[in-house]
TrEMBL record:
Gene name for this UniProt entry: mutL
The UniProt record lists the keyword Coiled coil: no
The protein's name: DNA mismatch repair protein MutL
Top-rank taxon, per record: Bacteria
Keywords carried by this UniProt record: DNA damage, DNA repair
Pfam families: DNA_mis_repair, HATPase_c, MutL_C
Keyword Calcium: no
């Protein structure tokens, strides 16, 4: 392809504006974030967000903050006009507010149609601003104290950018999660999120534990411990409340929710020490306070990442704060080291699992077996769970759905409602018919026939909770959870059941781990056992290398 030689030209203002608007507002989520930051900077104690059409049709944020005085309102939608930063260069190194660039309203007006109504409490009458592109009109109106900002028809004049937007359901899910993070880090405020006329998230002023209840439910809030140290506050979960991912580890710096650097996440895990198994992550909401000059919030277009001047020191304070919070409770005691799962670590074919002979039952939970000259220890619960999981997987697609005699109403939290809208068609495809009933309720009409007769407490609630969880594979999550409940528990194992479980495990396609990733079997080499006693193993003896040591 021939090389084109072109002269350098300065972009016309109208082109530069279209490009720059994308730096601040590239999706509806950005509009919500910027407007929430403005409201918080204005000292609002009540924030209400309305979203329509995934935010492309409308985003509206209403607050009871300080408002914009009439003499300044004409500059509200002008680029780089802000009341939050002094015009002096040094001010950019001493940011004390969430917003500071003066681009939010300008970028929103470039990307959509901006409508702003604002009134300080001491001012008679309100101001109204209409802005789209470079056209700005200001007029007088009446309104309560505070500010309401509406951005409508986002990217309607930018068809290429409009085509690249996520689906409304996916965007609503992200907006709900964003609101949840602000609730967690500002629990002392009133919060409300409405999507297409339906309330998805509400929170009344409370402490961080109450915010966890609003976002993740009361079961999670009952399992968190307060953290209160110099520069670090919030909550961490008890060791029994863990996840395989770190998506519920939340941090803020000087009130700004941020994507934490790996060093801070590692500090939290180190604060738990042996209380967490390998690969597990807790729930935490930690608010970090640093001197304004010790952090730089201007290193990311969406300000989700901040640079900390002394990250190792901050990480050390986080680690110590978490450790102290845990040490104040009986649960903070050393846990025994875990034994790594056996090889192979990748899924194996059925033929690779050895023929094992049962030789004993230990603690009514573990099977002792021998095979290939070694000692094998089988966790009967994990093995039974694996066998049940594979059986349910086979049966799920072989039977039609089971219609309930009467539809059942179930309570959903805001994130579950968002996921229902996103996954409804996929859930119906494998037999789960669940309808949004409004007001945080869902109507369950049918469940997969393979699951309908399982002896599982709260069967329908368990199915729905797993289907609307944050797992990327809800079908697998449902089956894994339902396989766990009826699997043999400690104290239930005897010789006959042990034989049955061992045979079922040997017939599995993937016998090495339960559906949740825990090992089903551990292998103790006969050679390692012999060497631990200071002997040669029988395999060494067979080679004639154990003379004189019998």
């Amino acid at each position: 392809m021939p090389t084109l030689t072109r002269t350098i030209a300065i972009l016309p203002p109208e082109v530069a504006r279209l490009i720059a608007a994308g730096e601040v507002v590239s999706r509806p989520l950005d509009v919500v974030r910027e407007l929430l930051e403005n409201a918080l900077d204005a000292g609002a104690t009540r924030l209400e967000v309305e979203v329509e059409g995934g935010g492309l049709r409308l985003v509206r944020v209403r607050d009871n903050g300080s408002g914009i005085p009439a003499e300044s309102v004409s500059l509200a939608a002008v680029r780089h006009a802000t009341s939050k930063l002094s015009p002096k260069p040094a001010a950019a190194l001493h940011v004390t507010t969430l917003g500071f660039r003066g681009e939010a309203l300008w970028a929103a007006a470039q990307a959509g149609q901006l409508h702003l109504v604002t009134r300080p409490a001491s001012q008679v009458g309100a101001s109204e601003v209409l802005a789209h592109g470079d056209e700005v009109t200001v007029s007088r109106t009446s309104a309560p104290a505070g500010t309401t900002v509406s951005v409508s028809n986002l990217f309607a004049a930018l068809p290429a950018r409009l085509r690249t937007q996520a689906s409304p359901a996916a965007e609503v899910r992200e907006i709900t999660a964003l609101m949840g993070r602000y609730v967690l880090h500002h629990p002392e405020l009133h919060w409300r999120l409405t999507v297409d006329g339906e309330v998805r998230l509400t929170h009344a002023p409370a402490d961080t534990r109450g915010a966890v209840a609003s976002v993740y439910g009361p079961l999670s809030s009952n399992r968190v411990l307060n953290v209160d140290a110099v520069g670090v506050s919030g909550v961490v979960s008890r060791p029994e409340l863990t996840r395989a991912r770190r998506d519920r580890m939340h941090f803020s710096v000087n009130g700004r929710p941020v994507l934490a650097p790996p060093e801070l996440e590692k500090a939290v895990l180190e604060g738990y020490g042996e209380l967490l198994p390998a690969g597990a992550a807790p729930l935490c909401v930690l608010n970090l306070t640093v001197a304004p000059e010790d952090h730089n919030p201007n290193v990311h277009p969406a300000k989700q990442v901040v640079a900390l001047a002394d990250l190792p020191d901050v990480a050390a304070r986080v680690r110590e704060a978490v450790a102290e919070a845990l040490a104040a409770h009986p649960l903070a005691r050393a846990a025994p080291a875990l034994i790594a799962p056996p090889e192979p670590t990748t899924p194996a074919q059925r033929g690779n699992f050895p023929e094992l002979t049962l030789v004993g039952v230990y603690q009514a939970l573990y099977l002792l077996a021998q095979g290939e000259g070694d000692l094998w220890v089988i966790d009967a619960h994990a093995a039974h769970e694996r066998a049940l999981f594979e059986r349910l997987t086979r049966e799920l697609g072989a039977a039609p759905s089971h219609d309930l005699p009467e539809p059942e109403l179930l309570h959903l939290n805001p994130e579950q409602v968002a996921r229902l809208h996103e996954r409804s068609a996929d859930l119906q495809a494998w037999g789960l018919n669940l309808e949004d009933f409004g007001a945080g309720l869902a109507r369950l009409r049918s469940v997969p026939a393979a699951l309908s007769a399982l002896a599982v407490p709260r069967l329908h609630a368990e199915i729905v909770e797993a289907a609307l969880g944050d797992s990327p594979d809800p079908r697998r999550e449902v089956l894994a959870r339902l396989a766990c409940a009826p699997a043999l528990k400690a104290g239930m194992l005897d010789w006959e059941r042990g034989l049955t479980v061992l045979a079922a495990l040997q017939a599995c396609e993937q016998p090495w781990a339960c559906p949740h990733g825990r090992p089903t079997v551990l292998r103790l080499s006969e050679r390692d056992l012999a060497h631990a006693f200071g002997r040669r193993s029988v395999r060494d003896v067979a080679r004639g290398r154990d003379e004189g040591r019998r």
